[in-house]
Every structure is written in structure tokens, then in C-alpha cells.
Design a protein that fits this description.
It is a single chain. The chain is of the alpha/beta class and 248 residues long. It has one domain: NAD(P)-binding Rossmann-like Domain (Rossmann fold). Helices cover 46% and strands 15% of the residues. Strands 3-2-1-4-5-6-7 form a seven-stranded parallel sheet, with helices on both faces. Strand 4, helix 4 and strand 5 form a beta-alpha-beta unit. The longest helix has 29 residues. The structure holds acetoacetyl-coenzyme A. It is an enzyme of class 1 (oxidoreductase).
């Protein structure tokens, strides 16, 4: 059997790269989506992973555009085959208090973070059903569970992702498909670098683990949930947040 194919949206980012690296180390073939191949220097990114022995490739796609996702899925099928593992990572922040938020700030976050998960998953779930196997992981956020100052848009999108996950899990379970959410806390990436220093220091002071997490902490959870043997873990949310927010 050919090595399983993993599609990771937004794989070039801090968390995405580590997910690609760890799934690749598990022998998955990797394809990532990228928005702007030149700006993201995506071929060099893929080449770096290849140097580590990972079969890494990319396709251009704006996940917020349904038609583009349809075309992307055709390209992936032609060039690489059927997707067995899908990780929806692509996401943005456009932080601002609600009383100051422009409608575009709201819409862009919902379009990319939440609608993007639908647009991409919709392309691959049918063939996963036909083949009786699929592993889907949606990357949400602690702020989807707890809410956060300045993130009505992001918190709504990330909470919505887990509702989506649970419904996909119910539909997929009879056909060998699992869908789970991983909810990162504050992780050292360019996204958390962009938080104003004073605000970030205040947040870090509230993390019981004493520091932000590493991208590898998230990748480890994704690797666990996408293993062939993980077929009975379905519809779950796995928080990885240094005990910042605990719930059950
Ligand atoms: N906790 C407590 N108070 C907060 C706060 C917080 N997290 N964020 C802002 N405030 C307070 C400020 O201290 C300030 O209080 P005072 O008026 O008493 O000084 C007040 O709210 C206004 O704050 P700003 O002056 O910063 O107002 P602003 O309009 O310029 O910006 C903001 C507001 C956009 C919320 C900005 O503070 C900000 O960017 N905060 C960070 C939001 C955040 O946590 N984003 C997470 C990004 S990382 C991520 O999302 C990844 C993930 O999944 C975890």
C-alpha cells in the first residue's frame, strides 16, 4: 500500500510546519496548501523538509474560496492521489474590540478559519467515505473555548470549528472516518509574536505551565489523533494549553 497522503492547510506556518514534520516522520506523504507561493517561499520550505527525508509538496489555494478549493482538490488527486489525513490549520487573527470591529475584520476571520474548514473538508470527505478510512483534525484554539478580549471573530470561528468537528465525527464514524479538534493555547509562533508585548506578558503570567508552548506540542497531538490505530477517538477536543483553561 502507498504511504498515506496527508493534506495540511496552511502548513507553512509555525504550527503547520511542525505538523508536516511529525506526520512526515510517521511516513505520511505531505501536501500543504499555500496562499501565495512566492511570498511564502514555499518551494524552499518544501525542499527543507525533503532534506529531512520527508515527501513534502504544495498546492496553491485560498481556503476561503470554495471554487478554488474544488480546483485544488482536483490538482491534489491528479498529482498525488487520494487524501487520507486532513489537517485544517490555515487561520488568521484580526484582533480588535467588538465596539471597534469593522465588518471586514469579522468576515475575513470567519471566511478563512471556519468556512475554510468546510470548503476544504467538503472536497475530501466523500472519497474518505468510499474508501472507508479518514483522519481529520481541525486546529481550533483555547480562545474558542474560553473567549478572549479582542477576539469575538476568532473565538466565534474557533468555537464553530469544534461544532463542525463533532458533526463530521457523527457522519464519518460509520465509514471509518474520525474527526477531532486540537485546541492550542498560546504557542510560540508569529501569531503570538504579533500580540502587543504588555498584553502577551499578562497572558503568559496566567499560564500555569509558566510559558507559552512550542509548535511541536501541537504536532504531537495531531500525530496521535491521525494514527491509523486512533479509530475510536472521534469527535473529541484535545486542549494543549499548559493548563491555561481546563474543562471536561
Ligand atoms: N486581559 C485583560 N485586559 C485586557 C486584555 C486581556 N487579554 N486585552 C486588553 N485588555 C485591556 C487593556 O489592558 C486596556 O486596559 P486599560 O484601558 O485599563 O489600559 C484595555 O483592555 C484596552 O486595551 P488596548 O489599549 O490594547 O486597546 P486596543 O483597542 O488598542 O487593542 C486588543 C485591544 C486588540 C484586544 C489588544 O489589546 C490585543 O491585541 N490584545 C491581544 C488579544 C489576544 O490575546 N489575541 C490572541 C492572539 S494569538 C491567538 O489567537 C492564538 C491562539 O489561538 C491562542
Amino acid at each position: 500500500m502507498a504511504a498515506r497522503l496527508a493534506l495540511v492547510t496552511g502548513g507553512e506556518g509555525g504550527i503547520g510546519t511542525e505538523i508536516c514534520r511529525q506526520l512526515g516522520a510517521d511516513g505520511r506523504r505531505i501536501v500543504t496548501t499555500c496562499l501565495d507561493p512566492e511570498a511564502e517561499n514555499i518551494e524552499a520550505w518544501a525542499e527543507n523538509l525533503r532534506q529531512e527525508g520527508i515527501d513534502a509538496n504544495w498546492v496553491q489555494c485560498d481556503v476561503s474560496d470554495y471554487d478554488a478549493c474544488e480546483k485544488m482538490a482536483e490538482t491534489v488527486r491528479e498529482q498525488f492521489g487520494e487524501v487520507d489525513v486532513l489537517v485544517n490549520v490555515a487561520g488568521i487573527t484580526r484582533d480588535g474590540f467588538l465596539h471597534k470591529m469593522a465588518s471586514d475584520q469579522w468576515r475575513s476571520v470567519i471566511d478563512i478559519n471556519l468556512n475554510g474548514a468546510f470548503n476544504v473538508t467538503r472536497q475530501f470527505v466523500g472519497s474518505m467515505r468510499e474508501r472507508g478510512f479518514g483522519r481529520i483534525v481541525n486546529i481550533s484554539s483555547v480562545n474558542g473555548q474560553s473567549g478572549q478580549f479582542g477576539q469575538t471573530n476568532y473565538s466565534a470561528a474557533k468555537a464553530g470549528m469544534h461544532g463542525f468537528t463533532m458533526a463530521v465525527a457523527k457522519e464519518g464514524a460509520p465509514k471509518g472516518i474520525t474527526a477531532n479538534t486540537v485546541s492550542p493555547g498560546y504557542i510560540k509562533t508569529s501569531m503570538t509574536d504579533a500580540i502587543p508585548d504588555q498584553v502577551r506578558e499578562g497572558i503568559v503570567a496566567q499560564i500555569p505551565a509558566g510559558d507559552m508552548g512550542e509548535p511541536g506540542d501541537i504536532a504531537r497531538a495531531v500525530r496521535f489523533l491521525t494514527a491509523d490505530e486512533a479509530g475510536y477517538i472521534n469527535g473529541a477536543n484535545l486542549p494543549v494549553n499548559g493548563a491555561l483553561f481546563c474543562s471536561f
